[in-house]
Amino acid sequence: MNVLTTLLTMDSGTARIAGYDVATETKKVRSAIGVTGQFASVDELLSGRENLQLMADLHHLGGNESKKIVERLLARFDLAESADKLSSTYSDGMRRKLDLAMTLVGRPRIIFLDEPNMILRVPSDGGAKSLRTLLARLDEHAIDVEEFTVQMPDLDDVFLALTGHSSSPAESKTQVITP
Question: I need a surface site. Which of 3, 55, 90, 103 has the fewest CB within 10 A?
């Protein structure tokens, strides 16, 4: 995952993400992807709303557009009631939802999920309910998922890949990939 997200360089070979060469077009790759790590990377000194607004500012979204995106993501991830509370007061599950919402602020074409079982908080149903919830939230964010694959080579590793497209005709394919 570190190579595909341009955090490490490849020793040899080639890789393309969203049509861009990982080795030579790192800025374009980074502009096309979103990454949600194994542990929530929210700023606990900020509220949920402020965390999302920070991401909107980093993506250079305009004032009105960023406010709409922030409000829509807070609602879609069931964080509206606690939006103005410090994220340090959030439960682990709420932090994970906020972290995933932060990944979606920039409308990435490809989303990398590191340790999706941590992100999805896999319940006793084997994760099916959490996966359906995630797919519904992506759909609500104008990402239509066309296909997904779940592979579990052993109990510690999970690979989840979602392939879809934006509901907006101007936007291109979105994929969710996990190592």
Answer: 3
Distance CA 103, CA 141 (A): 12
Structure tokens at 141: 């964010």
Q: Give the CA distances from residue 74 to residues 48, 70, 81, 138, in Å, rounded to whole numbers and listed in that order.
A: 8, 6, 9, 13
Chain segment 5-44, per-residue pLDDT in tens: 888 898 888 888 888 999 999 999 998 888 887 667 899 9
3-state secondary structure the chain: CCCCCCCCCCCCCCCEECCEECCCCHHHHHHHEEEECCCCCCCCCCEHHHHHHHHHHHCCCCHHHHHHHHHHHHHHCCCCCCCCCEHHHCCHHHHHHHHHHHHHCCCCCEEEECCHHHHHCCCCCCCHHHHHHHHHHHHHCCEEEEEEEEEEEECCEEEEEEEEEECCCCCCEEEEECC
Partners of 147 in beta bridges: 163
Burial category of 135 from C-beta neighbours within 10 Å (exposed 0-12, middle 13-18, buried 19 and up): middle
